[in-house]
Amino acid sequence: MRPGLLRNSARVLFAIVFASMILSKLYFTENSFYARLDFVAKSLFYSSRFHLAFVGIAVIAYFIPQIKLPRITPAKSLFINIVLLFFYILTLYSLIMTQGLREDYFTDQNSPLKRDLLQEATDRDRFIAHSTGYPDGVPYTNSLEGLEYSNSAGFKYFEVDTQKTSDGHWVGMHDWEDWAQDTKYAGTIPPTFADFKSHKINGRFTPLDIETIRSWFLAHPDKRLITDKVNEPVEYAKSFPEKNRYAMELFDEDSLTEARKNDIDALISWSVFKDMPPYDSISQLKELKVDKIAMSRLQIKGRKRFLLQARNAGIKVYLFNIEDIHKSFCEEMGYAYGMYIGTWNFNQPDINCH
């Protein structure tokens, strides 16, 4: 009898954990173990307190033989399980719709914050020209024409994807296979520096090497470079010693620490902290002295509470993977500070967000 009561208790607790994991799988876009574990813990805390009495009775009855409990038949056991699961689902649903879990994980898509749309849309600190910008609407050129196009549009920050050629030169390039396709290069990748420089992107865009990048930004003192792909801050700084002219997106804590020690400004990739426990991630980011984050807009779902806390903590989050610029500005910028985009009209921005 008593072991059966404990088994019933364990079964219901297992069902609660299992149901919580299913909900987290349905709602979370980021496959984060800590985020799921945190959600399950909150589910148990918020929604299974009614179950504690049942567990308590089972434990007391197990350790105090003098207590006589009515015999629990298989039919009664099934009925108890069904009733407990019903109350769990009902309680969890009401909490999602009204308070704790909704606030943590299921916040409405539209930001609850009041926004000055015109101020945001004309603030040049909020927008980074993605892969130097989209000259003639062409993405991922990482080209001299991209820099000039975005400069004429009024951008202040310019992202350049940066990788090394086979002979060790830093160049502007996002993906070698895509580059080979765009340049009709048929040789081994990565190419030599000479091969890279001799192939124009799409037959018309001028490729960038580190000397061209450095010269361009030194000639435009009001503009700033944001690197991507490169994760060697000290090595990169040897080729671009004017450290005040750029910030580097970095991809692990060691590189971030290295950058801090060498006075190199940095923003961290989402991959650095995506598995940090949600309840502790802000404090950990502060310990790492993080003030800027590059994050995919696809990770907003399931992390909205964190993003609002980051804003309140003064951490600037820049979104990438932008497909519909207007939609992301209207619906997702409320949770972030800025965006990586290929084009923008700072003088007459489209801020009709109804």
Describe this structure in words.
By secondary structure, the chain is of the alpha/beta class. It has two domains: 2-105, no CATH class; 117-341, Alpha-Beta Barrel (TIM Barrel), CATH 3.20.20. Helices cover 47% and strands 12% of the residues. It has 16 helices and nine strands. The protein has an eight-stranded parallel beta barrel with strand order 1-2-4-5-6-7-8-9. It is elongated and about 85 Å long. The chain starts with a helix and ends in a 13-residue tail after the last strand. Mean pLDDT is 82; it is low at 27-31 and 97-112.
| Strand adjacency order, main sheet | 1-2-4-5-6-7-8-9
Q: What's the CATH class label of the largest domain?
A: Alpha Beta
CATH topology of the largest domain, anyone?
Answer: TIM Barrel
Q: What is the ordering of alpha helices and beta strands?
A: HHHHHHEHEEHHHEHEHEHHEHEHE
What fraction of residues sit in β-strands? 5-15%
Main beta sheet strand tally, sense and closure: 8 strands, parallel, barrel
Uncertain segments: 27-31, 97-112
Distance between the first and last residues' Cα: 62 Å
State the CATH architecture of the largest domain: Alpha-Beta Barrel
Number of strands: 9
Our Rg estimate from Cα atoms comes to 27 Å
Mean pLDDT: 82
CATH superfamily membership of the largest domain, which one?
Phosphatidylinositol (PI) phosphodiesterase
